[in-house]
């Protein structure tokens, strides 16, 4: 029987996309995905994050729970990859000696080899490279969605933010050639995908490696020429690299969505300086003003950190001022997490937990007040929704379906007379009847429903796969039987 696998993912969109590659690699090597609820597949892979402390706790907690499972199933293998593996390296095997493989962010493609080697040698294999051996997008990928796909345009980061450990773990920025990116986009569209999200640790610095400051805007416009591609998104840009040509490309390219996720981190110039974020609040708000002048319907989301070392009450008040001025449609809010190996971890002025918690609660209340007010403006408006899977946790109970509007807002809608006909990946136009801080409801009859090739793929249970390159990697199971020769001596 084929060996089974499961992948557990922590962290950002980059990690989610890396897990798609891990799945693609394992399936090309002969493994099959374990059934839901199977708690002891032949291979369990943890793809980890190292940005926040709770990622460490979750990993080692899950590894602890697997120890008795593996004792009962000695043929089971456990692999740990991603940013935490890049950071902790051999420490993972020391703390959890029942782990079989540890691999880093730069050598995802080695996983099948490492599993085979660990199985053969009956010993843990730890392989951490300091730089990429191949660009990850050349690897085979098992896509999780029939209608939306991630496309990496770069990996790594050249910034030196004092709170962030990612550059040390992902390395310096490496850019893909535009032709390779567009080929992957077209391959996804050929499989029925309607929406792509361009990914980069610092997505709008794309082109720095080959010396073209305007490469990202050109790439957005080129995506506009891909037939069948209905939505283009990107994440995450850095304010310091945001240029006017990108705003123009967003406004003038019909399939580029009018949604922008741009991390603020803090509204205090003093804190931004301490974070080594090379922009100030005036520059940040100036970008937002330009975006809204070009695209009045744009939805802008952000990341904010509360409690950075040395943050005063006055600094925090400035953050609240910027939040009120920016009128975000959503914000990912975080309490500062000290990460060993970052400059911020050794800074003076580390704040007490209770101070950080109190500020965090005030920030969340302010953000929700604003996002609710912004969402209420859409009541009575008709929105285009790309129907999704798993966005609405209460859909089964409420009888609704869910998806994302073009501006990225989450919409729960009533299928009405289209009940049973609407599939994930289809497009629905519906009118907003209610607004909450984090979502919109549309409880009337849909205005329109369009069946799509993505919906056809979802109905058939077919997910896109991009083949990539898999040279010399081992497979599991019996080798394929070679065809009988038809020429030469053996044929007579």
Could you describe the 3D structure shown?
The protein has 492 residues and is of the alpha/beta class. It contains 15 helices and 23 strands. The strands form six sheets. A seven-stranded mixed beta sheet has the order 20-21-18-17-16-19-22. A six-stranded parallel beta sheet has the order 2-1-3-4-5-6, sandwiched between helices. Helix 12 runs parallel beside helix 13 (353-376). The protein is globular and about 65 Å long. It starts with a strand and ends in a 26-residue tail after the last strand.
Quick structural summary:
The protein has 492 residues and is α/β, with parallel strands linked by helices. The protein has helices at residues 13-28, 53-72, 83-88, 90-95, 111-121, 166-170, 178-190, 215-223, 244-252, 269-275, 281-294, 313-326, 353-376, 395-398, 453-460, and strands at 4-9, 32-33, 43-48, 77-82, 101-103, 125-127, 141-142, 148-152, 154-155, 174-175, 195-199, 231-235, 259-261, 299-306, 330-335, 382-387, 401-405, 410-413, 427-431, 434-435, 440-442, 448-450, 465-466.
Q: How is this fold's topology laid out?
A:
Elements: E1 4-9, H1 13-28, E2 32-33, E3 43-48, H2 53-72, E4 77-82, H3 83-88, H4 90-95, E5 101-103, H5 111-121, E6 125-127, E7 141-142, E8 148-152, E9 154-155, H6 166-170, E10 174-175, H7 178-190, E11 195-199, H8 215-223, E12 231-235, H9 244-252, E13 259-261, H10 269-275, H11 281-294, E14 299-306, H12 313-326, E15 330-335, H13 353-376, E16 382-387, H14 395-398, E17 401-405, E18 410-413, E19 427-431, E20 434-435, E21 440-442, E22 448-450, H15 453-460, E23 465-466
Helix pairs in contact: 8-9, 12-13
